[in-house]
Every structure is written in C-alpha cells, then in structure tokens.
Amino acid sequence: MTKIKYGRKRKLIDRGWRRWFLKWKCRKVSIKKGYEIGQALIAMAQHCAVHHRMGCLGLAANQLGIRKRVFVAKRRNTFRIYVNPEILEGYQKYEVVEHCLSWPDNPNGFKVTRYKTILINASNLENPMLLKGLDAQIFQHEMDHLNGVMV
Ligand SMILES: [Zn+2]
C-alpha cells in the first residue's frame, strides 16, 4: 500500500484569501512524485465524492495547495491520475454549466465552452488517448485548474 505523503493536513482551497493560489500555473513534476500527489488527490476526491454536497468528479493538485501538474479525474467510475497532462486536440465546441469544489458559494455554476471530444496525453500514459463526453469535460475542467484558469 502506498503511503500518502501529501495527504496529511492538506485542506481543500475552497474559500477565503488562499484562493489567489489557484490562479498560478502549476509546474511539471516527475512521474514518481506525480503518483504520490495523485494518491493524496484520490483520497480527498473520494472523501468529497461521499461527503461534499456537490460530489466530486475530479481534483487538481493546486486545489490542495500543491503547485504541480497533477490531477485526478473520474473515468469509468474510477479516479485516474494524470501526471503532466495535456490536450493535443479538441473537437466540437459546446457550452455547458459547471460547478467547482473550490467555488462552492456559486450555486448557479459557471458557463464554460468545452470540446465534446479531446485527444489527450500525460507523462504516465503510454499513448495519447481520446476522451469523450463527461470524461472529456472533467479532463478540461481539471486542465484549466493546472493552468490557473478559474471557471
Ligand atoms: Zn474545479
């Protein structure tokens, strides 16, 4: 079992003055360190999925105060870790309303433009991969977090 190094005492940045941190771009990270951070993210994401009124479909490292390019996103009902993720191509734009654990005080959500299908890659993936629908939407939301873009 992997020890969760980054988990202890980490809190979700969801209100207050610390939010400026979320507007900073995250930095590249090694796969090894990325997985350590990913374990902490999964633990928090699973906790929020059960206990947060908004649920949780994904979580980026900077939402836990870690400025690294790692996030977890739900795909086929499991949280997957993406280290240094990137979007290579996007197809078919559409508008959708999203919510964010870091902005729980906006009940109406935010209108954003997303791609229906994206071609993605990450340091811990062997090959680029196509994501569609909700999988693609979650990935794009978390990708924005890593780039300091708040919905
Ligand atoms: Zn978010």
Polypeptide structure, described:
The chain has 151 residues and is of the alpha+beta class. Helix content is 23%, strand content 29%. Strands 1-2-3 form a 3-stranded antiparallel sheet. Strands 4-5-6 form a 3-stranded antiparallel sheet. It binds zinc ion.
Entry keywords:
151 residues; alpha+beta; Peptide Deformylase; three-stranded antiparallel sheet; 2 helices; globular; binds zinc ion
Q: Which regions have little confidence, pLDDT < 50, spanning 5+ residues?
A: none
> What's the level 1 CATH class?
Alpha Beta
By CATH, the architecture is named: Alpha-Beta Complex
What is the third-level CATH name, the topology?
Answer: Peptide Deformylase
Strand order of the largest sheet: 1-2-3
For the largest beta-sheet, the strand count, sense and barrel status come to: 3 strands, antiparallel
Give the helix level as a range of percent.
Answer: 10-25%
**What is the count of distinct domains?**
1
Determine the number of helices (DSSP H or I, runs of at least 4 residues).
Answer: 2
Summarize model confidence as the mean pLDDT: 93
Write the H/E string, N to C: HEEEEEEH
CATH superfamily assignment?
Peptide deformylase
Which class best fits the helix and strand makeup? alpha+beta
**Number of extended strands:** 6
Bound molecules: zinc ion
Q: What is the first-to-last residue Cα distance?
A: 35 Å
Tell me the β content. Answer: 25-35%
